[in-house]
Amino acid sequence: MNQRFQSAIGPRGLKGSLLVCVLLLLGVLAGCESKETAVSDHASSPSSPVEAKDQSPNPPLVPRESDEPQHSAGHQESSSPPEPPSRQEDGPKVAPLPIQFQGPDAEAKQLQVDAEKLLAHGIRTIAGKRLILHTDIPLDDELRSLPEVFDKATTQFCDYFDVELQKVADWQVRACVIQDLEKFERAGLLPQVLPKFQHGYALGDRIFLKEQPSEYYRRHLLLHEGTHSFMLRFFQGAGPPWYMEGMAELLATHHWDGAKLTLNTFPADKNEVPFWGRVKIVKDDVAAQKGKMIEEVMQYGSNAHLNVEAYGWSWAAAKFLDQHPQFQAIFRKHIEHAGDSSGQFSISLVETYGEEWFKVRQEWQLFVMNMEYGYDIAREAIEDVEVQQYADLPSEQTFQVHADRGWQSTGLYVTQGMKIQVTATGRFVIYREQADDPEGTEGQAQSTVWESEAGGVSIRYHGGYPLGTLLVAIDNLQQTGLTGLLSTGAIGTGGDIEIPQDGVLYFRVNDSPAELAENQGNVEVKLSLLGQDQ
Prior knowledge:
By secondary structure, this protein is α+β, with helices and mostly antiparallel strands. The protein folds into 2 domains: 97-355, Neutral Protease, domain 2 (Orthogonal Bundle); 383-530, Galactose-binding lectin (Jelly Rolls, Sandwich), CATH 2.60.120.430. It has helices at residues 97-109, 115-120, 141-161, 181-186, 215-235, 241-252, 278-287, 294-298, 308-323, 328-333, 344-353, 357-369, 377-380; strands at 2-3, 32-34, 124-127, 131-135, 173-178, 200-203, 206-210, 254-256, 261-263, 388-389, 396-402, 408-414, 419-425, 428-436, 445-452, 457-462, 465-467, 470-475, 489-490, 494-498, 503-509, 522-530. It has a 6-stranded mixed sheet. Strands 1-20-13-22-11 form a 5-stranded mixed sheet, with no helix packed on it. A hairpin with a 3-residue loop joins strand 3 (124-127) and strand 4. The longest helix has 21 residues, at 141-161. It is elongated, with a radius of gyration of 26 Å.
């Protein structure tokens, strides 16, 4: 087989260079408003394991329309390392967030709560250590559990942000969960500085939530606003809009079983998080050719989150940087700059990553283009390998490609026109299908193991190729165009390939990013550099 690489995406590419600046966030903010409309992707029943696999190629990731030149999928613009967004020496200075929040926060705290007046208007109160909750919704076990949820969340906030528990000993939030806004107005629970809001609003240690369409999303919104409150209290700010909302979404995405709370989860299924919809937002935008490079997300201004899409992309940026094993440390340390709500916050973050920002951009594209519930960011992370010129090495090379990982670099730098013979051997586990015990033994289950060779198993497809097929791609980090890892070829058990462009050779076993943990074993890939006359 003589294999040429085929692009898995359309002709429109991404912007060809790093954005030269991150917008300064202008204006005076009065509070943290959450306008993240509940998004339903909950209507259909869970898919069967076979149906869960994506069976169509990914659509192109492209920016919103602009006057900047665009590049085709096969074009990768070579450049020197990306320059971070330029500093703006002159111009308006953005005040730290604590000053912006001081007035409304102080006025909200001065509100006097009259217990008898609350009861007269049908407002019930539940008090916990960290949360005092007022609501006009009839109490049930779920509502009664919210102070406990918030108590547990506070401990996890402290763990995540490395804040000592004793430092938050006196911190308590008062939250209103509102069905009838007029009742809360008549009861005197709404400060005059509270603007009209769609879903949630935080004024310092005062949180206001409108009732939501699911219990999960009500908790999510409470934790979202609680994250704002915590950051403003203990970090004197929450950063620019993408970071402020991204962090709130990051920590508010949770699992609660009635006893144990886990924050910062990546939901495995849409049914775990009804009306959350952040994965759906990214997938829908990509399908509509409105995907965003990570720098575009960082440009969100103070009004961007009037639209629910901005919450999805802000969550994606925070989740990606926070969970990626190579990018996490820098991202988490940057909380030290949370008091800066200007564009300088994002500029310094890019500068701190340095040349590693090329990898951030490369793997961000893979993340959003292949977004799905349960995406395993750690297993999809590409490990660093020393790059060497293939032409300077022995023509015969052998590599182990792990079935439970995403793209894997060979470290071989190949050049346009090279011809390479590939031979792939070995069997590996590509899927484990759980089924109830046919004998009916209570609590028992059997796992059906699917084995594959590099040619894949055609009974199931992912991304247009049979599950388990060996894929090949070329990429060069020292560029600012579209990553070559979005233009793949299926090499299967072997064949001859002709290199279409300079770059590093990569391989992977074809599978969903959400199901890599089920896989086991390796493919042995033998390469032979052929002479130009062969």
